[in-house]
Design a protein that fits this description.
By secondary structure, this protein is mainly β. It is built from one helix and ten strands, in the order ββαββββββββ.
Length: 100
């Protein structure tokens, strides 16, 4: 299963929890009328979409246009433990997950 999202980080003083951002996009948290989104994934990709803004992903800085990916052999990457923040300006991030 592969899914992706775009998020705007508007509060420069806040550290956002990635799972909370994703969960807010799910209309039906029982998943009876929406696609299931697991909180544990095999691959997680983040890309900074905003020129001139530095996005910090779990203590790793992503400058504008850059991306990074975490991969595991099984669904062992916990989205509830992943955090993102922005520096001095609001920023947009692209998030993609792969789960088996």
């Amino acid at each position: 299963m592969t899914q992706s999202w775009m998020f705007t980080l508007t509060d420069i003083t806040k550290t956002y929890n990635l799972w909370d951002l994703i969960r807010a996009t799910i209309a039906d948290l029982t998943f009876s009328n929406s696609a299931f989104v697991p909180s544990m994934v095999q691959e997680l990709k983040l890309q900074n979409q905003t020129p001139g803004v530095v996005i910090t992903w779990s203590n790793f800085s992503l400058t504008s246009g850059s991306w990074d990916v975490k991969r595991a052999a099984v669904n062992s990457i916990n989205l509830k433990a992943e955090t993102v923040s922005t520096d001095t300006n609001p920023g947009v991030i692209y998030v993609a997950i792969i789960a088996n």
